[in-house]
């Protein structure tokens, strides 16, 4: 069963919500766009990997994007598959072109045709995740649970090359489509060797309960204040900012498109970035004619009113 599905990571949601609301001369805009591209590439890779991993959901317990705290450190794992005899951690990698695993120097080289650049070695990364998870399991009284790791290459067109020991790399690195079979095979071998059956669902529940969501305060990171965010409701038809409030709905000044719900995305984005919204902020951000309109909109938005600071927040 899939007990923690994949969703768009919060840092990516925040970049996507912020970038269209900054003026073109905002100092860190280029850096933010580059980071949004990197996060987006990672997320689209995870979607491709999830497509293949999902076939295991009928037999095994699956969690996406597990974020755990252990020994004063946080660690994040893209996929955890709890099979009958072992836990498999899977790191998703989304590269274009050709990648070369150098098993001797333990480095990954990407060949974009022109540029070759060094990346963090994925196998070192998953080895560290394995150590963290094994330690976390012991601290939660889950002893003798075998943990294996795999690196899933998301893009089928990516060419994987090896310098050094091809056999050892082939055991742990594969295109995503091959990963389910590798897990099934290993799990079967362990069963034949007499490894005890795991309480996969119970272990999954413990992990789910302990897992947070990886988040980032991008307002602080890039020095953005709420007033740096350009206000207005985006047209869901043409993308223009600043739909007008008319007769209880919204109309685009550019393409004349009408909508009753276009403001919900703007409200959600404001709360995502700032944690909450006040009546006054709502008037400014949506461009509303009066406090009573703002109150009516906020009451129907699905947000929850906190009496103590007179702000609206997301229901938890
Ligand atoms: Zn429009």
TrEMBL record:
UniProt superkingdom: Bacteria
Pfam family, one: NERD
NERD domain span: 41-156
InterPro entries for the chain: NERD (IPR011528)
Protein name: Nuclease-related domain-containing protein
PROSITE patterns named among the record's database cross-references: NERD
């Amino acid at each position: 069963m899939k007990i923690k599905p994949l969703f768009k990571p919060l840092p990516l949601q925040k970049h996507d919500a912020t970038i269209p609301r900054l003026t073109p001369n905002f100092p860190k805009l280029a850096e933010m766009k580059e980071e949004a591209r990197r996060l987006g590439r990672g997320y689209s890779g995870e979607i491709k990997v999830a497509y293949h991993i999902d076939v295991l959901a009928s037999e095994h317990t699956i969690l996406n994007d597990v974020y755990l705290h252990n020994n004063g450190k946080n660690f994040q794992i893209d996929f955890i598959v709890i099979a009958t005899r072992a836990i498999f951690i899977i790191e998703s990698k989304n590269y274009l072109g050709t990648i070369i695993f150098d098993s001797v120097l333990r480095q990954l080289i990407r060949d974009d045709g022109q540029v070759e650049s060094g990346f963090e070695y994925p196998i070192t990364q998953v080895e560290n995740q394995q150590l963290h998870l094994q330690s976390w399991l012991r601290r939660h009284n889950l002893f003798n649970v075998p943990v294996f790791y795999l690196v899933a290459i998301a893009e089928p067109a990516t060419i994987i090359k090896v310098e050094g020991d091809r056999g050892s790399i082939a055991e742990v690195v594969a295109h995503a489509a091959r990963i389910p079979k590798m897990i099934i095979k290993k799990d079967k071998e362990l069963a034949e060797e007499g490894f005890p059956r795991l309480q996969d669902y119970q272990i999954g529940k413990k992990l789910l309960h302990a897992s947070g969501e990886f988040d980032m305060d991008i307002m602080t990171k890039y020095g953005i204040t709420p007033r740096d965010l350009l206000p207005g409701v985006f047209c869901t038809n043409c993308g223009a900012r600043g739909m007008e409030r008319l007769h209880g709905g919204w109309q685009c000044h550019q393409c004349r498109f009408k909508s009753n719900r276009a403001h919900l995305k703007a409200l959600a984005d404001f709360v995502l970035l700032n944690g909450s919204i006040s009546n006054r902020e709502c008037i400014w951000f949506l461009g509303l004619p009066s406090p009573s309109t703002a109150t009516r909109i906020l009451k129907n938005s699905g947000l929850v009113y906190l009496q103590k600071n007179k702000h609206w927040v997301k229901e938890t």
